[in-house]
Amino acid sequence: MTENEISHSVIGAALEVHRILGVGLLESAYERAMAVELEQRGIRAVRQTLLPVTYKGVELDEAYRLDLLVEDLVIVEIKAVAAFAPVHTAQLLTYLRLANKKLGLVLNFHSESMRSGIKRVANNV
Questions:
Q1: pLDDT per residue rounded down to tens, the chain (125 residues)
Q2: Beta strands 74-79 and 103-108: pairing type?
Q3: Which of 26, 54, 103, 107 is the 20 to 30 Å CA partner of 17?
Q4: What top-level branch of life does the organism fall under (predicted)?
């Protein structure tokens, strides 16, 4: 699957999770539900993937864990916030750069409409 195909599948899964669970849960609940939904669709998603960071030649163990890494190509950052902030996009762009990935999605499950809670972020690797 290409990044675009994976992105399309992840968005479909997010719409389904949002439809069933609605608004108001913790990010961890949406993360787990997304992993289940993607698995049921035959798509491999790994939760809490370690993203090591090197700082001045020193590897910082467990600097960050990705919410979901889908098919080892697309990073998915789960949010449960009142509204997107510019930092959410910047955060995902940093993860994409550090992981050397091209595409990521920020999914905000506290949006009234899931379609308005989706941000696609591309990294010019």
A1: 899 999 999 999 999 999 999 999 999 999 999 999 999 999 999 999 888 888 898 988 767 889 999 999 999 999 999 998 999 999 999 999 989 999 999 999 999 999 999 999 999 85
A2: parallel
A3: 103
A4: Bacteria
Q: Which residues of 64-101 are buried (b: 16+ CB within 10 A; e: fewer)?
A: bebbbbbbebbbbbbbbeeebeeebbebbbebbebbeb
Q: Which residue range is the domain that position 74 belongs to?
A: 3-122
Residue 43 belongs to domain with CATH number: 3.40.1350
pTM score, whole prediction: 0.91
Closest by Cα among 98, 59, 55 to 75: 98
Per the CB < 8 A criterion, the answer to whether 79 and 88 are in contact is: yes
